[in-house]
Amino acid sequence: ITSTLSGVLAYAAFTGEQALAEQVKRVVTVGLRNATSSYGFCKEILWTPTEQGESNQVGDLVQIFLLLAERERPAHWYAAAERYLRGGLLPAQVLTTEGYAKETENPTCDRERDFTRRAVGGFGFPTPTAHLLKEANEIDTIDITQGAIQGLCAAMRQFVTEKEGTVCLNLLFSCDHPALTVASELPLRGRLTLTPRQSGRVAVRMPQGIKEHSFTVTKNGAPLPFAAIGGYAQLGTLAAGEQVVVCFEPLHRQEQEFICHKPYTVAWYGEQVCGVTPFAGLYPLFAPLPLT
Protein backbone atom coordinates (compact mmCIF):
# COMPACT_ATOMS: atom_id res chain seq x y z
CA ILE A 1 0.00 0.00 0.00
CA THR A 2 2.89 2.41 0.64
CA SER A 3 3.89 2.65 -3.02
CA THR A 4 0.25 3.28 -3.95
CA LEU A 5 -0.01 6.01 -1.32
CA SER A 6 3.18 7.63 -2.58
CA GLY A 7 1.89 7.62 -6.15
CA VAL A 8 -1.55 8.95 -5.18
CA LEU A 9 0.03 11.74 -3.14
CA ALA A 10 2.31 12.68 -6.03
CA TYR A 11 -0.78 12.78 -8.28
CA ALA A 12 -2.63 14.96 -5.75
CA ALA A 13 0.33 17.33 -5.57
CA PHE A 14 0.42 17.60 -9.37
CA THR A 15 -3.33 18.18 -9.76
CA GLY A 16 -3.82 20.28 -6.62
CA GLU A 17 -6.45 17.94 -5.15
CA GLN A 18 -6.12 18.88 -1.49
CA ALA A 19 -8.84 16.52 -0.22
CA LEU A 20 -7.06 13.56 -1.81
CA ALA A 21 -3.73 14.59 -0.28
CA GLU A 22 -5.38 14.92 3.12
CA GLN A 23 -6.86 11.43 2.79
CA VAL A 24 -3.42 9.97 2.03
CA LYS A 25 -2.00 11.74 5.07
CA ARG A 26 -4.69 10.19 7.31
CA VAL A 27 -3.97 6.71 5.98
CA VAL A 28 -0.25 7.15 6.70
CA THR A 29 -0.55 8.75 10.14
CA VAL A 30 -3.52 6.74 11.44
CA GLY A 31 -4.08 3.66 9.30
CA LEU A 32 -0.45 2.53 9.20
CA ARG A 33 0.50 3.52 12.73
CA ASN A 34 0.54 -0.03 14.13
CA ALA A 35 2.61 -1.29 11.18
CA THR A 36 5.34 1.35 11.37
CA SER A 37 7.81 2.76 13.88
CA SER A 38 8.87 6.28 14.75
CA TYR A 39 12.36 5.71 13.33
CA GLY A 40 11.90 3.85 10.05
CA PHE A 41 10.39 0.37 10.13
CA CYS A 42 7.39 -0.74 8.06
CA LYS A 43 5.84 -4.20 8.27
CA GLU A 44 5.86 -6.17 5.02
CA ILE A 45 2.38 -7.73 5.22
CA LEU A 46 -0.12 -6.36 7.73
CA TRP A 47 -2.04 -9.56 8.40
CA THR A 48 0.91 -11.87 9.06
CA PRO A 49 2.09 -12.50 12.65
CA THR A 50 5.79 -11.94 11.87
CA GLU A 51 7.86 -8.79 12.34
CA GLN A 52 9.37 -8.86 8.87
CA GLY A 53 9.53 -5.53 7.12
CA GLU A 54 10.57 -4.25 3.71
CA SER A 55 13.10 -1.51 3.03
CA ASN A 56 11.30 -0.41 -0.13
CA GLN A 57 8.26 0.47 1.98
CA VAL A 58 10.48 2.66 4.15
CA GLY A 59 11.65 4.32 0.93
CA ASP A 60 8.01 4.88 -0.04
CA LEU A 61 7.30 6.52 3.31
CA VAL A 62 10.34 8.78 2.95
CA GLN A 63 8.93 9.94 -0.38
CA ILE A 64 5.53 10.51 1.23
CA PHE A 65 7.07 12.62 3.98
CA LEU A 66 8.95 14.67 1.39
CA LEU A 67 5.77 15.28 -0.59
CA LEU A 68 3.93 16.30 2.57
CA ALA A 69 6.78 18.69 3.42
CA GLU A 70 6.16 20.49 0.14
CA ARG A 71 2.48 20.82 1.08
CA GLU A 72 2.48 21.78 4.78
CA ARG A 73 4.61 22.00 7.95
CA PRO A 74 7.93 21.44 6.15
CA ALA A 75 10.07 21.29 9.30
CA HIS A 76 7.84 18.56 10.77
CA TRP A 77 7.81 16.34 7.70
CA TYR A 78 11.47 16.83 6.82
CA ALA A 79 12.32 15.77 10.38
CA ALA A 80 10.22 12.62 9.87
CA ALA A 81 12.03 11.91 6.59
CA GLU A 82 15.42 12.35 8.24
CA ARG A 83 14.49 10.01 11.09
CA TYR A 84 13.45 7.34 8.59
CA LEU A 85 16.61 7.82 6.56
CA ARG A 86 18.95 7.67 9.56
CA GLY A 87 17.02 5.10 11.61
CA GLY A 88 15.58 2.77 8.99
CA LEU A 89 16.78 3.05 5.43
CA LEU A 90 20.52 3.65 5.77
CA PRO A 91 21.12 1.05 8.55
CA ALA A 92 19.29 -1.60 6.49
CA GLN A 93 21.66 -1.31 3.53
CA VAL A 94 23.98 -4.29 3.16
CA LEU A 95 27.54 -2.99 3.64
CA THR A 96 29.21 -6.38 3.99
CA THR A 97 28.22 -9.98 3.41
CA GLU A 98 30.73 -11.35 5.89
CA GLY A 99 28.72 -13.55 8.22
CA TYR A 100 25.56 -12.88 6.24
CA ALA A 101 25.87 -15.10 3.17
CA LYS A 102 28.04 -17.63 1.41
CA GLU A 103 28.52 -18.62 -2.21
CA THR A 104 26.53 -21.44 -3.80
CA GLU A 105 28.92 -24.31 -4.38
CA ASN A 106 27.42 -25.35 -7.70
CA PRO A 107 25.48 -22.39 -9.11
CA THR A 108 22.86 -23.25 -11.72
CA CYS A 109 21.90 -19.70 -12.79
CA ASP A 110 23.18 -16.12 -12.70
CA ARG A 111 21.36 -15.23 -9.49
CA GLU A 112 23.43 -17.86 -7.63
CA ARG A 113 26.81 -16.69 -8.93
CA ASP A 114 29.11 -14.24 -7.15
CA PHE A 115 26.38 -13.41 -4.65
CA THR A 116 28.54 -12.22 -1.76
CA ARG A 117 30.00 -9.44 -3.93
CA ARG A 118 26.83 -8.45 -5.76
CA ALA A 119 24.70 -8.27 -2.61
CA VAL A 120 26.71 -5.37 -1.16
CA GLY A 121 24.72 -2.14 -1.40
CA GLY A 122 21.33 -3.83 -1.58
CA PHE A 123 18.34 -3.99 0.75
CA GLY A 124 16.04 -6.72 2.06
CA PHE A 125 13.54 -7.60 4.79
CA PRO A 126 14.62 -6.04 8.12
CA THR A 127 12.86 -6.50 11.44
CA PRO A 128 12.53 -3.54 13.85
CA THR A 129 16.04 -4.37 15.12
CA ALA A 130 17.81 -6.70 12.67
CA HIS A 131 18.66 -7.24 9.01
CA LEU A 132 16.90 -10.60 8.86
CA LEU A 133 14.13 -12.34 10.74
CA LYS A 134 15.63 -15.78 10.02
CA GLU A 135 18.31 -17.38 7.88
CA ALA A 136 15.88 -18.36 5.12
CA ASN A 137 14.99 -14.73 4.35
CA GLU A 138 16.73 -12.86 1.56
CA ILE A 139 19.09 -10.11 2.63
CA ASP A 140 19.04 -8.47 -0.79
CA THR A 141 16.38 -8.50 -3.51
CA ILE A 142 16.13 -6.40 -6.67
CA ASP A 143 12.62 -4.98 -6.23
CA ILE A 144 13.20 -4.00 -2.61
CA THR A 145 16.57 -2.44 -3.46
CA GLN A 146 14.92 -0.46 -6.26
CA GLY A 147 12.32 1.00 -3.89
CA ALA A 148 14.90 1.84 -1.24
CA ILE A 149 17.16 3.58 -3.77
CA GLN A 150 14.19 5.52 -5.12
CA GLY A 151 13.58 6.84 -1.62
CA LEU A 152 17.25 7.77 -1.20
CA CYS A 153 17.28 9.60 -4.54
CA ALA A 154 14.12 11.52 -3.64
CA ALA A 155 15.71 12.59 -0.36
CA MET A 156 18.95 13.72 -2.00
CA ARG A 157 16.96 15.98 -4.32
CA GLN A 158 15.55 17.75 -1.28
CA PHE A 159 18.61 18.02 0.97
CA VAL A 160 18.67 21.62 -0.21
CA THR A 161 15.83 23.44 -1.96
CA GLU A 162 15.25 26.99 -3.13
CA LYS A 163 11.91 28.59 -2.35
CA GLU A 164 10.86 32.21 -2.78
CA GLY A 165 14.43 33.39 -3.03
CA THR A 166 15.66 31.48 0.04
CA VAL A 167 18.04 28.51 -0.04
CA CYS A 168 16.76 26.02 2.55
CA LEU A 169 18.76 23.20 4.14
CA ASN A 170 16.02 20.68 4.93
CA LEU A 171 17.84 17.41 5.59
CA LEU A 172 20.99 17.78 7.65
CA PHE A 173 23.37 15.65 5.57
CA SER A 174 26.62 16.60 3.88
CA CYS A 175 25.99 17.66 0.29
CA ASP A 176 27.33 19.73 -2.56
CA HIS A 177 24.38 21.68 -3.98
CA PRO A 178 24.82 24.33 -6.70
CA ALA A 179 23.70 26.95 -4.16
CA LEU A 180 25.18 25.60 -0.92
CA THR A 181 27.91 23.25 0.28
CA VAL A 182 27.21 21.45 3.56
CA ALA A 183 29.60 19.48 5.76
CA SER A 184 27.59 17.66 8.43
CA GLU A 185 29.16 15.99 11.47
CA LEU A 186 25.92 14.23 12.38
CA PRO A 187 25.21 11.82 13.94
CA LEU A 188 28.38 11.98 16.01
CA ARG A 189 28.25 15.71 16.67
CA GLY A 190 25.70 18.48 16.25
CA ARG A 191 27.71 20.66 13.90
CA LEU A 192 27.07 21.82 10.34
CA THR A 193 29.42 23.92 8.24
CA LEU A 194 27.69 25.82 5.45
CA THR A 195 29.35 27.62 2.56
CA PRO A 196 27.04 29.47 0.16
CA ARG A 197 28.09 29.24 -3.47
CA GLN A 198 26.00 32.27 -4.37
CA SER A 199 24.84 35.36 -2.50
CA GLY A 200 21.33 35.21 -1.06
CA ARG A 201 19.11 34.29 1.86
CA VAL A 202 19.74 30.99 3.64
CA ALA A 203 17.59 29.01 6.12
CA VAL A 204 18.44 25.85 8.09
CA ARG A 205 15.96 23.38 9.57
CA MET A 206 16.35 23.33 13.34
CA PRO A 207 16.53 19.67 14.41
CA GLN A 208 14.28 18.14 17.02
CA GLY A 209 15.53 16.47 20.17
CA ILE A 210 18.21 19.01 21.06
CA LYS A 211 19.02 20.83 24.29
CA GLU A 212 17.07 24.04 24.75
CA HIS A 213 18.96 27.18 23.71
CA SER A 214 21.86 25.09 22.34
CA PHE A 215 21.25 26.07 18.70
CA THR A 216 23.86 28.68 17.74
CA VAL A 217 25.17 30.15 14.49
CA THR A 218 28.48 31.84 13.75
CA LYS A 219 29.71 33.50 10.55
CA ASN A 220 33.43 33.71 9.98
CA GLY A 221 33.89 33.00 13.70
CA ALA A 222 31.51 35.70 14.99
CA PRO A 223 27.98 35.09 16.37
CA LEU A 224 25.29 35.47 13.72
CA PRO A 225 21.79 36.47 14.88
CA PHE A 226 18.96 34.47 13.33
CA ALA A 227 15.18 34.33 13.42
CA ALA A 228 13.49 31.03 14.28
CA ILE A 229 10.40 30.81 12.08
CA GLY A 230 8.40 27.67 11.39
CA GLY A 231 11.14 25.34 12.58
CA TYR A 232 13.82 27.00 10.44
CA ALA A 233 16.64 29.32 11.42
CA GLN A 234 16.49 32.23 9.01
CA LEU A 235 20.12 33.33 8.64
CA GLY A 236 19.48 36.35 6.44
CA THR A 237 21.52 37.22 3.37
CA LEU A 238 24.92 35.57 3.09
CA ALA A 239 27.65 36.29 0.58
CA ALA A 240 29.14 33.59 -1.59
CA GLY A 241 32.11 31.92 0.13
CA GLU A 242 31.24 33.02 3.67
CA GLN A 243 31.59 30.16 6.14
CA VAL A 244 28.71 29.66 8.56
CA VAL A 245 28.86 27.12 11.40
CA VAL A 246 25.66 25.85 13.01
CA CYS A 247 26.01 24.04 16.34
CA PHE A 248 23.49 22.32 18.60
CA GLU A 249 23.52 19.72 21.36
CA PRO A 250 21.51 16.54 20.65
CA LEU A 251 19.87 15.02 23.70
CA HIS A 252 20.07 11.40 24.82
CA ARG A 253 16.63 10.01 25.56
CA GLN A 254 14.68 6.76 25.62
CA GLU A 255 11.11 6.32 24.47
CA GLN A 256 8.73 3.38 24.58
CA GLU A 257 6.53 2.54 21.61
CA PHE A 258 4.53 -0.34 20.20
CA ILE A 259 5.64 -1.76 16.85
CA CYS A 260 3.54 -4.55 15.35
CA HIS A 261 1.64 -4.60 18.68
CA LYS A 262 4.80 -5.35 20.68
CA PRO A 263 6.57 -3.01 23.13
CA TYR A 264 10.02 -1.67 22.24
CA THR A 265 12.40 0.80 23.86
CA VAL A 266 14.05 3.19 21.41
CA ALA A 267 17.23 5.05 22.36
CA TRP A 268 17.74 8.39 20.63
CA TYR A 269 20.53 10.91 20.25
CA GLY A 270 18.76 13.91 18.79
CA GLU A 271 17.11 12.66 15.58
CA GLN A 272 19.37 9.60 15.39
CA VAL A 273 18.19 6.26 16.75
CA CYS A 274 21.04 4.59 18.67
CA GLY A 275 19.44 1.27 19.52
CA VAL A 276 16.18 -0.61 19.85
CA THR A 277 15.40 -3.31 22.41
CA PRO A 278 14.49 -6.10 22.78
CA PHE A 279 16.55 -7.50 19.92
CA ALA A 280 14.87 -9.98 17.59
CA GLY A 281 16.28 -11.47 14.40
CA LEU A 282 19.75 -11.88 12.88
CA TYR A 283 22.53 -9.32 12.34
CA PRO A 284 21.75 -6.12 14.26
CA LEU A 285 20.76 -2.96 12.40
CA PHE A 286 22.21 -0.61 14.98
CA ALA A 287 25.91 -0.86 15.76
CA PRO A 288 27.14 1.00 18.84
CA LEU A 289 27.95 4.62 18.02
CA PRO A 290 30.50 6.72 19.97
CA LEU A 291 27.94 9.44 20.60
CA THR A 292 28.79 12.07 23.17
Helical coverage, percent range? 25-40%
Instruction: Quickly give the structural class.
Output: alpha+beta
The mean pLDDT is 92
Integer-rounded radius of gyration: 20 Å
* SSE pattern, N- to C-terminal: HHHHHEHEEEEEEEEEEEEEEE
Range of strand content: 25-35%
Looking at the chains present, what oligomeric state does this protein adopt? single chain
Largest sheet: 6 strands, antiparallel
Termini gap: 39 Å
Q: Can you count the helices?
A: 6
Overall geometry comes to globular
Q: Please count the beta strands (DSSP E, at least 2 residues each).
A: 16
Uncertain stretches of 5 or more adjacent residues? none
Strand order of the largest sheet: 4-5-6-12-8-9
Topology:
Layout: H1 2-15, H2 18-31, H3 55-71, H4 74-92, H5 115-118, E1 130-132, H6 142-157, E2 160-163, E3 166-169, E4 175-176, E5 180-184, E6 191-196, E7 200-205, E8 216-219, E9 222-223, E10 227-229, E11 232-238, E12 244-247, E13 252-259, E14 262-269, E15 272-277, E16 282-284
Parallel strand pairs: 3-7
Antiparallel strand pairs: 1-16, 2-3, 4-5, 5-6, 6-12, 7-11, 8-9, 8-12, 10-11, 13-14, 14-15
